[in-house]
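debug: dumping io for the single-chain case to check the tokenizer round-trip. Nothing else runs in this session.
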Amino acid sequence: MENYSVTGRIGEGAHGQVLRGVQLKTGMEVALKKVLLKKLDEGIPNSVIREIKTLQEVDCKYVMKLVDYFPHGVGFVLVFDLMPSGLWEVIHDVENPVTEPHIKTYMHMLLSGVDYLHSHNIMHRDLKPANLLISSTGELRIADLGLGRIICSDRPYTHQVATRWYRPPELLYGARNYTSSVDIWAVGCILAEMYNKSPLFPGESDIEQLALVIRGLGTPSWRGITSLPDYNKISFPPARPQPWDTLVPDVEPSVLQIVSALVTYDPSSRLTARQALNHNYFYTQPLPCPLYEMPRPPSDHRQRLRPAELRVDKPPSELFRDLDKLVNG
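debug: decoded output
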């Protein structure tokens, strides 16, 4: 930590704090992801090891780049460029609502990042607005690759991945063999959320999540569904699909066309990221806007948009004491 100065706290991650800091040698503002090893005898969490290894291989302007990492106390620190905001905050900023050209540009950047990952045989497996960060120039970058996995067709994966609202039905039914199309379902849900300003399927449990999906898309049916581990564990009454203009109202037909091609039951029928980048949606008026016209979030954007109970306004001196307490007990 001697090469960095802590200036504030951004929030809490799955494994510890995320701090705001400055690289002393260059003056560059950074985010310091502090990972604490809660059970020293179990070593470094696999998700963290995967994230470091994956980030070391990634070189895409739409995916967060690992600046540095080093051991510290009973844990270690991952260093990233400082991102003043995220897509969650952008969606919920009612004072500065995003326009359709903004949404199209965000979606183009997201799909470009996903296409890069998939073309390098990496599944993200936890795409959601909170994991899509926005730079001071308005550029979107995919973050948090802790659940990322190398794509391998002959090995099973865990189905306990992806945040529930963005989890595709095959995972809700317990699939252990799946493809990068799980990311595509999440992308479609994110796109719908940008237009609706609320999640497409906001279930409070796995069963409710599946029920909401079925209520929206109708009774599921695709090749292989009946062989999924949890398919026969719960049944739902027959349901007809709702029209897409009910699920995502007041949008142009091209929006419904691309969302429905991403959020579709059959994993093999979902568009790939590259196919989606060539969809008519991006060539229909209004067109995506250039980067220089994108919203540029202020440095305090995340703090202003975060619910009051999650805000952190402690001075740096108190943050240092907190960090020392966490490290040294």
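debug: round-trip ok. The mean pLDDT is 85.
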